[in-house]
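Dear Dr. L.,

I hope this message finds you well. Following up on our conversation about the binding site, I have prepared a predicted three-dimensional model of the protein together with protoporphyrin IX containing FE. For your records, I am including the exact sequence and ligand specification that went into the calculation, followed by the structure tokens. Please feel free to forward this to your student if that is useful.
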Amino acid sequence: MGEEGDVGLGHDVELGEIDLADSRKFVDHVPHEWFSELRRNAPVWWHPGTSTSDGFWCVTGYQDCVAVNRDWERFSSYRGGALFHDMEPEALEQQRLMMLNMDPTMHTRYRRLVNRGFTPKMVRDLEAGIVGYADAIIDAVCERGSADFVEEIAAELPLLVIAEILGIPVEDRRMVFDWSNRMIGSEDPEYQVSETAAAEAAMAVYAYADELSSTKRASPGADVVSALLEAEVEGERLDQLEIDLFFLLLIVAGNETTRNLMSGAMTAFFEHPDQWHRLLGDRSLLPTAVEEMLRYVTPVMHFRRTATQDCLIGDQAVSAGDKVVFWHISANRDDTVFDNPDLFDVGRDPNPHIAFGGGGPHFCLGANLARMEIKVMFDRLLTRIPDIHLDGEVQRLRSNFINGTKHLPVAFEPSAPLAR
Ligand code: HEM
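The resulting structure of the complex is given below.
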């Protein structure tokens, strides 16, 4: 894996060699040298079509990414969906029932339904439980003195938390985690599997959501699935497909993102041990450290929109119907906004990163929750296994969407589990 701090210079990059549609180009490291070249010389660039994608606009500067993200009237999530790959009309039609692929005002109505489950109060109420989960996760590996940080530490916490919010019984959680992996890592040979297998995983999630809904209808709980079953949009209950798609969005959005943030941040600490020691010496830096982890790692690297009319992005004219991809991962290294953007600095302040989106209507629903999970997990790691270090090879995910890590072998001084 490359040293990210060393690659942001991009002096000898040619535009012609840039291929951001090719997920293989993200395996060794995020191609920051390409983003840096684009921000400098072609901040709104027409990415030519490749064997895997038609052409699209690539928006890489901070201000332009924020503008596209906020201007939902001109840059629609509904027209072509919010994800990179174009879909067949039938698939698109179905995906449009998911909030991520809606525009206001439809989006606003759906968003209201789930907002209630993710308020700051609800996150505060979950804090004690999250501390308990984090300690239990560390208890499971601490005597051994080694772990795969991704699978045994980072993946566990978001899974437990979202499962609790959705009311998924403990015994089913592993299964749901495997489906979620297969759907999102679908370009990575380790999880894939073919397009068919990814579709099968999605079908399994729907079938599971159907079953869970029947259980919750019979005996509702204080969970989000029970709330969705009761909820109405314009006087009508959500139908089963809408419930299924909500369920799928929530498990995918809450799991992969937070897991890869934690794994990417742990790797950043291994590359910058001085920053780990800074935190060990001064825990009051945790809140700024969490924001810096989010900026530096940026687990969701881009989202897609479709232009609804001929218009400008910056000085660049784009046409109605064009596909527009804006890269949070690039905006978060824009040196017109962040001093020394390639530096990992746990005390960075201000830090107006857009890892959760640029303030548009789709701004991450789970931002408060994710921040809490990250803060708690790193606090417990710093306290309980402060000498954690890399013990093998970092294996990154093959994806141009999620800045992901598949395996991160770590070692530390063995210790006893907490007495309970
Ligand atoms: C480090 C962790 C996370 C990151 C980096 C992240 C990032 C994002 C981003 C970039 C968006 C799109 C924002 C936009 O287009 O304006 C988004 C949307 C969303 N996120 Fe997160 N997310 C994280 C954790 C979570 C968690 C824990 C949940 C919990 C369920 C969650 C649920 C969602 C949902 C449901 C949406 C769609 C919102 C909508 O369409 O209105 N995310 N997230």
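In brief: The pocket of protoporphyrin IX containing FE is lined by residues 69, 99-100, 111, 158, 162, 249-250, 253-254, 257-258, 261, 299-300, 303, 328, 355-357, 360, 362-366, 369-370 (CB under 6 Å).

With kind regards,
A. P.
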